[in-house]
C-alpha cells in the first residue's frame, strides 16, 4: 500500500486535523515507510507462538476471595470522633 499526499489529506480531514500541503508532502513518505514496516510484520511466521500480553513474565499476585472482617476494627474506630461498643456513634438525625 502506498500512501500519497491525497491519502494524507483524507486522513487528516477524517481526524479533523488541519495540515498544509507541505506538511502532507512531508508526512506521506513517513506513513508509507510505516506501512512498509507493517507489511513486513505481516510476513513473519508466528505459527505455534502463543499470544502474549507482555514481553516479560508477569504474574498477578491474587489473594483468595474470602470474606473477613479485616481484623482492624479497633484501628478503624480509633479514627472515629466517637465510638461505642465497637461501632461508630453518630448523632440522631430522625426524630
Written description of the protein model:
With 95 residues, the chain is mainly alpha-helical. Helix content is 39%, strand content 4%. It has helices at 5-14, 21-42, 73-77, and strands spanning 83-84, 87-88. A two-stranded antiparallel ribbon has the order 1-2. β1 and β2 form a beta hairpin. The longest helix is centred in the N-terminal third of the chain and has 22 residues, at 21-42. The relative contact order is 0.08.
Topology:
Elements lengths: L4 H10 L6 H22 L30 H5 L5 E2 L2 E2 L7
Antiparallel strand pairs: 1-2
Helix pairs in contact: 1-2
Which parts are unreliable, with pLDDT below 50 for 5 consecutive residues or more? none
Taken as a percent bin, the fraction of beta residues is under 5%
Radius of gyration from the alpha-carbon trace, in angstroms: 31 Å
Helix coverage percent: 25-40%
How would the global form be characterised?
elongated
Count of individual beta strands? 2
Number of helices: 3
Derived from helix and strand composition plus strand pairing, the structural class reads mainly alpha
The major pleated sheet works out as: 2 strands, antiparallel
Reading side by side through the largest sheet, how are the strands ordered?
A: 1-2
Order of helices and strands: HHHEE
Mean pLDDT figure: 90
First and last CA, distance: 76 Å
Amino acid at each position: 500500500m502506498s500512501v500519497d499526499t491525497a491519502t494524507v489529506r483524507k486522513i487528516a480531514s477524517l481526524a479533523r486535523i488541519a495540515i498544509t500541503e507541505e506538511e502532507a508532502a512531508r508526512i506521506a513518505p513517513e506513513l508509507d515507510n510505516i506501512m512498509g514496516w507493517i507489511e513486513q510484520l505481516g510476513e513473519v511466521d508466528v505459527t505455534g507462538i502463543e499470544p502474549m500480553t507482555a514481553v516479560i513474565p508477569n504474574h498477578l499476585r491474587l489473594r483468595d476471595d474470602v470474606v473477613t472482617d479485616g481484623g482492624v476494627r479497633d484501628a478503624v474506630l480509633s479514627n472515629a470522633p466517637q465510638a461505642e461498643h465497637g461501632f461508630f456513634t453518630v448523632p440522631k438525625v430522625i426524630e
